[in-house]
Amino acid sequence: VDLDAFITGLPKAELHLHIEGSLEPELMFALAGRNGLSLPYADVEAVRAAYAFSNLQDFLDIYYAGAAVLLTRQDFHDLAMAYFDRAVADGVVHAEIMFDPQTHTARGVPFAFVIEGLLSAMAEAQERHGITSALIMSFLRHLSEEEAFATLAEAESWLDRIAAVGLDSSEVGHPPEKFARVFAAAAAKGLKRVAHAGEEGPPAYVHAALDVLHVDRIDHGNRALEDADLVERLVGEGMTLTVCPLSNLKLCVVDTLDHHPIDRMLALGLHATVNSDDPAYFGGYVADNYRAIARARGLSRADLAQLARNSLTGSFLPADAVAAHL
Ligand code: HPA
Ligand code: ZN
Q1: Is 199 tagged catalytic?
Q2: Which InterPro entries does the UniProt entry name for this protein (predicted)?
Q3: What is the ipTM of this complex?
Q4: Domains of the chain (ranges plus CATH)?
Q5: Which among 171, 199, 226, 237 is annotated as catalytic?
Q6: Can you say which residues are annotated as belonging to the binding site for Zn(2+)?
């Protein structure tokens, strides 16, 4: 089989996907129309043309503005269904999707609309395609810990349907320590923990995600490579890194995919995975990320299979479900 078919055919989990980042411009226009909102863009091409970023914050400004078209349960349902349909076509058998409730509750959208729309799509996707999924509720790190606590309280009646809490948005200047108490509270409620660390932030933020937030996975983690002791620790702990190659390129974490460290991560023994992060904004879904990195770094089929296996073993699926996919 050719490489495209080989990649698509690998059973894989997607572990780093912001559902708001899967909002394609076509759906953005459809939802704006349905909700009687106007967009500051003439058409879909103008939206895509605006997607040129020089850093994380550039992207975040546009991404939060785009999410403003999401108002109803049906909007969140449609958003997630579009993602699941696309992910299934890429060979995704399990997806752990992040959502940012504060992006929506700050606009007056009830927390219940967000989570009920996502949960109904998750159930429908499983019924229709057999794909399983889990929710990761992410706190926006540019907001306060008090606001994160308020979000955790709003989630109280849905905690049995939330797998983990996460930490995203502007990294530099908002270190993990800021969220130590709310992550401890989430852990006490039985939630797993993930955090973006080492995307733009220094290796110290990765150390703090481990030591202070007690995370089960590191989202991104690229800058851990600057610290040999940290690499040794991540390898020793078998810590999963959810790496996002096309995101790294679009947000200038790497200057070209030819310099992407994914193969170095594997060679060091790091438990790296490949994910799409915000596929509608970064130019590709998960299989596009596998393809792009395979081409740029000359990955072997064994490397690609290893990355896909890592995604399943690094997921929050129970061991028997992981074994059934391997
Ligand atoms: N980093 C931080 N916050 C985010 C990202 C990211 O890559 N994508 C969506 N929110
Ligand atoms: Zn992310």
Answers
A1: yes
A2: A_deaminase_dom, ADE, Ado/ade_deaminase, Metal_Hydrolase
A3: 0.96
A4: 3-314 (3.20.20.140)
A5: 199
A6: 16, 18, 196, 277
